[in-house]
Amino acid sequence: MNIDIPVRNEGEIATVYASDYLNKISGEKIERECRRQIADGCSTLVVNFKDTEIVNSIGVSILLGVIDAASTAGTEIVFSDVSKDTGHLFEMLGLTNHVEMKDV
Amino acid sequence: MSENQKQLVHTFSALAELGQEVANKNNFQDMIRTSLHLLLGSLAIMRGGIARYSRFGHELNFLAVRGLGDEFPLTAALGVEDEKEFLNSGMSDIELSQAKMLAFFHRYQKVLEHKNIEIIMPLIIRDELVGIIFLGEKATGEPYTSGDKEVVRAMCRHIGVGIHQRNIMIELERKADETLNLYEDMRLTYSDTVRAFAAAIDCKDKYTEGHSVRVGKYSEIIAGELGWSEDEKEGVAVAGYLHDVGKLTVDKNIINAPYRINAKQNAQLSKHPSVGYEILKPIHHPYTDVPLAAKYHHERIDGRGYPDGLFDREIPYIAKIVNLADSFDAMTTDRPYKRRRPANEVIEDMKRNSGRQFSPEIVKAFCGAMLNELTGTDKRKRFRRLLGAEYMEAEGIVPMLKNALNSVDKSPALTLVAMN
């Protein structure tokens, strides 16, 4: 497990906390951690945005990679605690076509 | 803010970041990876790849891919005709449906369609195809609008410039390597030529065969002991090899005379330093003082040398080194009119003439190098190889060298008197 990326596992649900990584290239570690959780067999992957202020194009691309990995593995993917502005961005760009949005 | 405006803000932010990324990033791989993220993320494109085109191999090499899977080829052949087609299309996106006339498409049709590649964008910079970008479907599932394509074109142009700059850097590095190799070859050629010269000089004088080479080696040893750089040491060695080049113009009967030569013969022989200087001066040596070493290697710091009777600080340092090396070799080799002198006498001579003929600093360096070898501090057997182990290991040499080192003064009064 990447010690920089907080993760919580509850049964078959893995929650990865995106923190403020989704605006720079170091955010790729989010995708790596998500892929690791998917490969470990979680049935639901939750990406938690409670500490995420900004998601730029790099972050969108990283999240698309996560969506792609989950789709290939048949893993359900949930975005939780998304701020209003980020939510509008995801909707505008079509990410909400591929993920469920929830507040935890 | 309307949705359209928000979309524009998001897209233009990506474009601005991409411009900075291409302009500022020192690491090419990081730049390409980040650029692909920015391109895909700007329009939420599910998958894509950036490939660099190599004209020499006629192939595309993928620099970064996302979402294309393991079966997507990381290298793809691109024929000359395809290259021409891409150049003709300019930096315009080619939709997959239009790409069907390309041989490239037919070769990779299955994998391109399987991965839902919708757009192929050739990267053309200064009329040269530098790469191709492949883009998959948008996350919205909607087709690319004309506005989307404008954004893609603008971003791809930035990425193309980044790849083109990288290609130029690689070419510059290759040329720099080539130049360096050429320089090394020239250095070796120069080095070989110098040694051949030294051998030719020594051939004229059968009693001092190897003299020039030994003087070169002693000079190099002194420079090493003084802490000079590798280049500087090499320069001094060359000065040693060539110091007697002027003797090529001296009658060999004078050089090989088994008796002490007369004044007239001595006058002719004494010209050899100046003649050597005239021979070496027109040559472009990598080391500037080589001709000066030839000219002044018979000067003495007390001003009683020749050809110009220079005093200590007027004599080029390199000439002072060659002077000691030359004298040392003359004392330690057999000549037509005299045998080599025992090592203890030679050391005593150097000590006595320190501050008169020889620079004290150089005498100390030379004696120091000999002592280091004899005491084992320096494991190299340079003096033993040049003089013979028996000669070097004669009794009493080590204490004599220690005594010489202690007693040699760096600032002899004689020099101060001469300057006054």
What is the arithmetic mean of pLDDT of chain A?
91
Order of helices and strands of chain A: EEHEHEHE
Number of domains of chain B: 2
Order of strands across the main sheet of chain B: 3-2-1-6-5-4
Distance between the termini of chain A: 23 Å
Second CATH tier, the architecture of the largest domain in chain B: Orthogonal Bundle
State the fourth-level CATH superfamily of chain A.
STAS domain
When the domains of chain A are counted, the total is 1
Give the uncertain stretches of chain A in residue-range form.
none
Give the chain pair forming the largest contact, with residue counts.
A-B, 20 and 29 residues
* Percent range for β-strand residues of chain A: 15-25%
CATH architectural arrangement of chain A: 2-Layer Sandwich
Order of helices and strands of chain B: HHEEEHEHEEHHHHHHHHHHHHHH
Walk across the major sheet of chain A and give the strand order. 1-2-3-4-5
CATH topology of chain A: Transcription Regulator spoIIAA
Structure notes:
- The complex is a heterodimer of chains A (104) and B (420).
- Chain A is α/β, with parallel strands linked by helices and 104 residues long.
- Chain A has one domain (7-102): STAS domain (Transcription Regulator spoIIAA).
- Chain A has helices at residues 28-39, 57-73, 84-93; strands at residues 7-10, 13-17, 44-48, 76-80, 100-102.
- In chain A, strand 1 and strand 2 (13-17) form a beta hairpin.
- In chain A, helix 1 (28-39) packs parallel to helix 2.
- Chain A is globular.
- The model of chain A has no long low-confidence stretch (mean pLDDT 91).
- By secondary structure, chain B is α+β, with helices and mostly antiparallel strands.
- Chain B has two domains: 3-174, Beta-Lactamase, CATH 3.30.450; 206-419, Hypothetical protein af1432 (Orthogonal Bundle).
- Helices cover 58% and strands 8% of the residues of chain B.
- Chain B contains 18 helices and six strands.
- Chain B has helices at residues 3-24, 28-42, 80-89, 103-114, 146-204, 211-225, 230-242, 252-255, 263-269, 272-280, 290-296, 317-332, 343-352, 360-375, 382-387, 389-392, 397-407, 413-419; strands at residues 48-54, 59-66, 75-77, 94-95, 119-125, 128-135.
- In chain B, strands 3-2-1-6-5-4 form a six-stranded antiparallel β-sheet.
- The radius of gyration of chain B is 37 Å and the shape is elongated.
